[in-house]
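Note to self: user wants both folds in one dump. Writing first protein now.
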Amino acid sequence: MFSIAIQQQQYKTYILSDETTGSQLEVVPERGGIITRWRVKGEEILYLDAERFTHPDLSVRGGVPILFPICGNLPDNSYTLNGQQYTLKQHGFARDLPWEVVEQTTKDTAALTLVLRSNEQTKAVYPFDFQLVFTYVLQGNTLEIRQEYQNLSSTQLPFSAGFHPYFLTGDKNQLEFDIPSQEYQDQQTKEVHPFNGNFDFNRDEMDFAFGHITSQSASVIDRNRQFKLTLDADDIFSMLVFWTLKGKEFYCLEPWSAPRNSLNTGEKLTVLEPGTSYKASVRLSASFF
């Protein structure tokens, strides 16, 4: 049996439940359309800095922030288009703006559909008409994020897109990674290193880009919490980024469609023709053992 409830906390929160399996998902549309909690068999899968979340002027550190129309940051937070310079902050604006709930369903799954439309605020930094339609689908131990990117402009729409999920963990040394790549680039030093499945968690910050993935599926086994997390993403998501901070109980494994600065370089940038759209999906599954 599936249900969707609404709670008025600091923000209106939609709670999707699969009561048969004890899974729950919490979504806050007005705070960037973000997923803030995901529980499987009563266990928290996601990390959330609850104190930081209460401050609207701070970016959310936790849950599953949405990245659009860029992933990562731009040099000096700027890009040039048709000879004009624009300012766009790290990861874009979708994670900061309110989204609108347009559909709910509890038939066969618990699903919530949200929409973000371009407006004067977005066009000041990204001069395009667009519509994003995202549907969060909860069923059993799986969370699916279905996306549709629509170009409503009379010109081509260039963008990159992704997600920045924060996964809760206790002892990072008990994590085992299966990332489909043999190398990564350290985003701080720009050096490329071979990858054999292990990380050194003694560093203060780890920001690694896996740009040459050989599969659209990655997984992490948490021996301490005794569960396996699997991330499956459609082909548009051409890379994975791993990020964590020393002393914090989270790690991020982020599907990105293009690397940092792609709006300037064009590397792996998605370009939609006027009046067209693109559909994609990201699926997360958590299984306990």
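First done. Writing the second protein, which came from a different request thread.
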Amino acid sequence: MSSLKKLIGTITVNIVAIFTSLIVLIPLVVLFLNSFKSQGESNKMSLSLPKEWIFANYKTVIEQGKLVSSFFNSLLYATCSVLIIIIVVAAAAFVIARNRRGINNFIYYFIISGIAIPINNVALMEVLKALHLVNTRIGIILIYAAINIPLSLFLSYGFISTIPREIDEAAVIDGCGPVKLFVKIILPLLKPIIATLFVLNFMAVWNDFTMPLYYLNNSTKWPMTLAVYNFFGAYENSWNLVSADIILTLLPVLVVFILGQKYIVGGVSAGSVKG
């Protein structure tokens, strides 16, 4: 009787998971099919196959949507901000995890409070104006780094706390200084959480729309999300071109997620144990 209940429960869970997946997958399939259709066919927004596969839609989008420059802008913002996050967070989490007393404890809670505190765009604009970083690539990279550091520190701290202190003591006895201890001993052990932070933060930066909309006024500096927004305004009646534009924007982040998904679950679960 108990085995029958387990079987029914498993089947029910699988059915729910399948229907939930379809909610996400069906819009993507519609976009993919529409990207190869003519303008008239694409306006129906159906799951039917194109009568004629028009690959020229992608060529039109790349040439008229300025996606090449936008792609490299997105890649620059995501890569640079993620590198800053990983370097800063890994070092800070190691120091705080090994000596969480006094000022270190205050700094830890002060930084991770940013997870819950909303962004004040008015104050942030004034800060960027004072530093002459409005409408600059460096400014948007630093904004992304600052926004994503709190959660990254929380996860990294929890992960480093699971690394035994005996490893540090053995390395110090062998003559390692603080810097060599971190670079040679601790950093190689952080590969799972570093991979997790890279994937999560890369996707977050790549998919962000509001920050460049507020702080980048020059279209030559726009990432792909704003390029899609601008393209949709010009071609809102051409759903085949809009669909192709969206697919090209989604493709890089989907590749990153697929390649790094195995690290996400392990890294997040390990990093949240003692955070």
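Dump finished. Worth passing along: The chain has two domains: 1-56, 57-272.
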